Backbone:
């Protein structure tokens, strides 16, 4: 994959609020990361992905676009899958498609998957959050008394 390919990806996604953070990960202004399967195998990126994967972020998903029509991807599919599995063991395990999506073949599919994942992640964060308890009355049942200089 050449440098021009990364520039095309950056231009296409920049208007969606994404920014480039290196050759392997594009980070959204939200809760998702796009990982390039080809550069995930490079040692400096693989170690960063492994460190990221060891954290159990409930508000972050990994999305791996991989064009199945690309002959280079077809001939190296097994190697790419093994590289991703090694770098992202937790997310690759397939326990929950909310946290790992792979083989996204088209720009339209990427857009659809992003909307779905970001919507589900937002709901997940809301559902797992704990609301503030507010003021807890004492056990006597009496009402709180407000006092101060204005009274």
Residues:
């Amino acid at each position: 994959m050449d440098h021009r390919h990364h520039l095309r990806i950056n231009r296409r996604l920049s208007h969606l609020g994404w920014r480039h953070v290196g050759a392997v990960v594009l980070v959204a202004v939200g809760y998702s990361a796009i990982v390039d399967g080809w550069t995930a195998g490079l040692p400096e990126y693989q170690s960063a992905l492994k460190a990221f994967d060891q954290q159990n972020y409930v508000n972050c998903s990994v999305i791996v676009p991989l064009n199945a029509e690309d002959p280079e991807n077809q001939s190296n599919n097994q190697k790419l899958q093994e590289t991703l599995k090694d770098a992202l063991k937790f997310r690759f395990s397939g326990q929950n498609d909310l946290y790992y999506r792979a083989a996204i073949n088209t720009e339209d599919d990427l857009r659809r998957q992003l909307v779905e994942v970001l919507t589900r992640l937002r709901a997940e964060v809301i559902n797992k959050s704990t609301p503030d308890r507010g003021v807890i009355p004492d056990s006597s049942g009496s009402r709180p008394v407000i006092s101060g200089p204005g009274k």
